[in-house]
Design brief:
With 124 residues, the chain is mainly alpha-helical. It has a domain of 60 residues. It is 50% helix and 6% strand. It has five helices and three strands, in the order H-E-E-E-H-H-H-H. Strands 1-2-3 form a three-stranded antiparallel β-sheet, with no helix packed on it. Helix 2 packs across helix 4 and helix 3 packs across helix 4. It binds zinc ion. The site of zinc ion has 8 residues, from loops. Zinc ion binds next to loops.
Length: 124
């Protein structure tokens, strides 16, 4: 398992981009990385972004380790887990847990592969 939020980000970058950041706003693969932040600035449309933009993780302010745990629980270990139980397990409030459950259950097909890979690595 990953020890920090940053390690999760690095892993997400690897499985989503395979080494080349793609701007989620214009599709450009030309970007400048901000130092040590895992954020990028698009050289075409000048928007800044991170790997979570456009994914289920976007704008939740939840540590990615908790997201990874939630995905493993909901998709594999305990598919029927309640929002209340999930909130207890990963230490988030109920509103956050509820949002996470609905996003995980409504994952778009293109993101399903990302979830699969997160499950794989979380089980190791
Ligand atoms: Zn762009």
């Amino acid at each position: 398992m990953f020890k920090t939020h940053e390690e999760c980000l690095v892993y997400l970058e690897k499985i989503r981009w395979n080494g080349t950041p793609i701007c989620p706003y214009c599709g450009s693969d030309k970007a400048t990385m901000y130092k040590n932040e895992h954020r990028y600035r698009c050289n075409s449309c000048f928007t800044s972004y991170s790997v979570t933009v456009g994914t289920i993780f976007h704008q939740t302010h939840v540590d990615l380790r908790k997201w990874f745990q939630a995905i493993l629980l909901l998709c594999k270990l305990n598919r029927d887990i309640s929002v209340r139980k999930l909130a207890q397990e990963i230490h988030v409030n109920r509103a956050t847990a509820s949002l996470m459950v609905s996003r995980i259950r409504n994952t778009s097909p293109e993101q399903t592969e990302i979830l699969m890979k997160i499950i794989e690595i979380s089980e190791e």
